[in-house]
Each structure stands twice: as structure tokens, then as C-alpha cells.
Design goal:
Length: 502
């Protein structure tokens, strides 16, 4: 049972192969037209041969019908007069010759449906009433091809001499009398034999074509899929670690698209790998720095046997400060790791963004007063949106707090809230130190600091904007920044009013 399943699975996988599909397609494209051509040629020959045979025999039968009528064969077929007997023998000889020539049978039927002549000599004197004979007496010529039994049957009217010309089209003329019917059956053996020869020759030709098509299909399936094999080989080399270079297979438009997508993914993976290595180095540095400071302070205390209590207190305050800094780094790292998880759920609620902004600014104004920074809030219209309150608070707090921390004395921070029918925007502008142009592309990187010389004085972990950006993306929003060094910065957050789960 398992073997059967494996076999079927293998067959299914084989059919999914592009090479196999190209091979089968080429095979069908080559074989089906050849089969149709063969059957079409043979069938067309058969129809034309039968039609030609019927026309030829019918013409000869018309001539015989005229002889029968002109010699009064139907009325004098029993007469013993020498003249009639001689003419009858001549006509009988013609009928026998026609019968032998076409390997058929001819019966002469008079108006009483009596068979007066049968070239087979077995139905003379008998009465035949059939649909074909009746229709012929009504003026309809009938021909029927019986492929199964191998004969062609036709009827020919025997009309009076005066109407013989009219009878050539299969009618009795203009009121002419039909005196009798010739019921003829001829063999189609010669047609069948010719068809067999045609079939045999066509089959030989078809076999040669199939062999050629198989070869062409096999070669084309291999040649056409070669570029994809090169793509696979190049990707496997990158996967195995033998190469980290971009790959190029410009054979087809499709391979170019695949390769371009892979190269973009490879570039992103390299960037992620570099970012991960830099992140590990930064984490190591950021966590090691407070620990080093704590160790230095502790060693200094241990080295002094009779250190005064004031010195102990001063050192312990520095140690506590370093521990707090370490704790803050770890807390921010945990928050960032949680946001990086794709399964992170948002607690979406319908929230008044104006009230939330007012609350956050109320908490941060004491910090602004310490630096003599004026905080202004401008709301264009009331905004109600579906957001995660905790993460929205985190976004607003980080941006406003950074605007205050990296500001100048007697500076200002402006918070603008606006919305349209789809999104609401939260913009934070300041008159601070600004961001150099070369640093704008890196401000969302973890532990990146624009002003490294003042980072310890200002505080923070270098993770705030990375956390902010992740929180914005989780809301299917966007964050952009414009800045001029020495003049200030402006962060614009755009978030949908209605949250759509992925």
C-alpha cells in the first residue's frame, strides 16, 4: 500500500515538472495534428472515391436504361422473336459485363415491382417492394454507401425514350413515365484496398513523425529548462555558502524576474545579517559599559579601607544609576523583541486620539519646563481611531520626549493632529539640533545615536525610534522624517483610522 502511494506521488511530482510538461505538450502538439491529418486524408479519400464511383456507375446505368427503353426490354423480356431475343442478349451481356466490372449485382424491376433480370440469377420473377425502389418510381435517385457490409447501392429510373434526357438529373422529366427501376449494388473492395494502402503509408509516415517529434520534444524540453536549472544551481551554491554574489541568468524574461527577486532577497538577507551582527555588538557594548562602571566603582570602594560614609554614598548612587541604565536597556530590548514577533497581537480599541495626546503632553510638560522648551498642541479636528492604546502611547511619548531632549534652550515643540477619511496624522516638529543628512537613513537602527558625544548626558538607550517604528508598522502605518541640522526635525506618523487585521 505504501509502495503504491509512493509510486503515485512520484508520478504526480513528475507531472509537475516543467520539463515533463513541455515534453508532453510538444508531443501532443505534434501527434494530434498528424493523427487528425491521417484520418482526415483517409476519410476524405473514401468520400471522394465513393462519390466518383457512384457518378461513374450511374452514368453507365443511365446509358443502359436508355438501351432498355429503346429496345422495349421491359415489355418484351419474354418474347421469343429473334429481334427481341437478340437485343435482349446484347443488353444482358452489357449488364453482366457491368456487374463483373464492378463486382456487383444489377436487378431490373418493372412497374409491377417484379424482378425481370438479376445478374446473380436468384431473384428473377420475385417481387421487390423497398423504400429505395418506391422512391425511384417517384422520381428520386437514391445512392447508399454501406461501409459495414462493403457495398454501394443505387437506383436508376428507366424512363421513356422521349424523357430520357430529363431523367439524367434523377427525375422523371416533365410528367414522363418511369417504366422501371435498375437496382444496383457494387462492391467497394477496390476503395477499401486503396484505403488500406493509404492507411499503411500514412501509419509509416506517422510513426516516423512521432519518432522525430519525440526527439524534438525531448531536446526542446531539456534546452528550454536549462536556464531554470542554472538558476537552481546558482541558488544552491548561495545556500551552501560557496558564493554570496548576485546571480544572473538573462536567458528568459521569467528567469530575469526570478533572479532579480532572489538577488533582492539576498541583499536583504545580507543587510539583516549585517544588522544582526551590529546589533549583537551594540548590545554587548551597551550592556558591558554599565557593568564595567559598576565594577570600577565597587573595586574603588574595596581598595579604600577607611573610606568615609559620604564617599560610599556617592559611589552607591553611581552604582544604582548604572543599574537603572542597565535595567532600562534590558526593558527596551524585551519590548523590541516582543514587537519583532509576527504573532504579536494588538489590543485594538476605539480611542479618542485628541484626549490621548493631551494626556501624554501633560505628562511630558514638566520635562519640557526643565529645559525651558515650549510645547504647543494643535488639533485640526476631533480624531477617533482603532489603535492599541499602549503602543500608541509609546509612539507619541517617544517622539515628543525626543523632541524635548534633543532641543535647544528656549526652544519649542509643536504637535499637530489631523485626519482625513482614511488616516490620521500625528506630527511632531521641534527647533532642536536636527539630524545630519547622512544619519537620516540610520536613525531607526537599534542603538544608533546621532550625537554620540552627548548620548550619556541626554540618556536613553538608542532603541526608542526602533521601538516607535515597529509600533507604527504594527498598526499598518508609516513614519517619515525631515530634518535640517542645527534647525530642527519633523516626524510625521500616518496611521489608518480603522485597523484591518492581516
Amino acid at each position: 500500500m505504501i509502495a503504491k502511494i509512493k509510486k503515485r506521488l512520484k508520478t504526480f511530482l513528475l507531472l509537475r515538472s516543467l520539463r515533463a510538461r513541455i515534453f508532453v505538450l510538444m508531443l501532443l502538439v505534434g501527434i494530434i495534428p498528424s493523427l487528425l491529418m491521417r484520418f482526415g486524408i483517409v476519410d476524405n479519400y473514401e468520400q471522394r472515391a465513393v462519390q466518383q464511383r457512384v457518378t461513374t456507375v450511374q452514368n453507365q446505368l443511365m446509358i443502359l436504361a436508355n438501351h432498355l427503353d429503346s429496345n422495349n426490354y421491359l415489355t418484351n423480356y419474354r418474347s421469343e422473336e429473334q429481334t427481341y431475343r437478340t437485343s435482349r442478349e446484347v443488353i444482358n451481356a452489357e449488364l453482366e459485363m457491368l456487374s463483373n466490372l464492378y463486382e456487383g449485382r444489377v436487378m431490373i424491376i418493372n412497374s409491377n415491382f417484379e424482378v425481370i433480370k438479376d445478374t446473380y440469377g436468384i431473384s428473377e420473377g420475385k417481387t421487390i417492394i423497398s423504400e429505395e425502389v418506391i422512391k425511384c418510381f417517384r422520381g428520386e435517385n437514391i445512392s447508399h454507401y454501406d461501409r459495414e457490409h462493403g457495398y454501394i447501392e443505387m437506383t436508376t429510373p428507366i424512363v421513356s425514350t422521349s424523357d430520357s434526357a430529363a431523367s439524367m438529373d434523377g427525375t422523371s422529366g416533365n410528367g414522363g413515365e418511369i417504366r422501371g427501376v435498375m437496382l444496383t449494388s457494387i462492391s467497394n473492395d477496390s476503395i477499401v484496398q486503396t484505403m488500406e494502402v493509404l492507411n499503411r503509408n500514412a501509419l509509416i509516415l506517422e510513426t516516423l513523425m512521432i519518432v522525430a517529434i519525440l526527439a524534438v520534444a525531448g531536446v526542446l524540453s531539456i534546452v528550454l529548462t536549462k536556464p531554470f536549472e542554472r538558476v537552481t544551481q546558482a541558488i544552491n551554491e548561495v545556500k551552501a555558502g560557496y558564493s554570496n554574489e548576485s546571480i544572473s541568468v538573462p536567458d528568459y524574461v521569467e528567469t530575469v524576474h526570478i533572479v532579480d527577486a532572489f538577488n533582492q532577497m539576498l541583499g536583504r538577507m545580507k543587510a539583516l545579517d549585517d544588522s544582526r551582527q551590529e546589533f549583537v555588538a551594540n548590545v554587548s557594548h551597551e550592556l558591558k559599559t554599565p557593568m564595567t562602571s559598576i565594577k570600577v566603582l565597587a573595586d574603588s570602594l574595596l581598595a579604600q579601607e577607611n573610606a568615609p560614609a559620604e564617599l560610599y554614598r556617592e559611589f552607591m548612587e553611581d552604582i544604582v544609576s548604572e543599574i537603572d541604565r542597565e535595567n532600562q536597556i534590558i526593558t527596551d530590548l524585551l519590548a523590541l523583541v516582543k514587537m519583532d514577533k509576527k504573532v504579536q497581537d494588538l489590543n485594538i480599541v476605539s480611542l479618542n486620539i485628541n484626549d490621548l495626546t493631551e494626556l501624554i503632553l501633560k505628562r511630558l510638560r514638566p520635562l519640557a519646563r526643565k529645559k525651558d522648551v515650549e510645547v504647543v498642541f494643535e488639533s485640526v479636528r476631533p480624531v477617533i481611531a482603532e489603535v492599541d492604546e499602549v503602543k500608541m502611547t509609546l509612539i507619541m511619548t517617544n517622539l515628543v520626549e525626543n523632541a524635548i531632549k534633543y532641543n535647544k534652550e528656549h526652544g519649542w515643540v509643536k504637535v499637530l493632529l489631523d485626519a482625513d477619511h482614511q488616516f490620521f496624522t500625528f506630527q511632531v516638529s521641534d527647533s532642536g539640533i536636527g539630524i545630519p543628512e547622512e544619519s537620516l537613513a540610520h536613525i531607526y537602527e537599534r542603538f544608533y545615536r546621532v550625537d554620540k558625544s552627548h548620548s550619556r548626558e541626554i540618556g536613553g538607550t538608542g532603541l526608542g525610534l526602533a521601538i516607535t517604528r515597529n509600533a507604527v508598522l504594527m498598526h499598518r502605518g508609516s513614519i517619515t522624517v525631515t530634518s535640517t541640522e542645527g534647525q530642527g526635525s519633523s516626524f510625521l506618523v500616518k496611521i489608518p483610522l480603522n485597523y484591518i487585521a492581516q
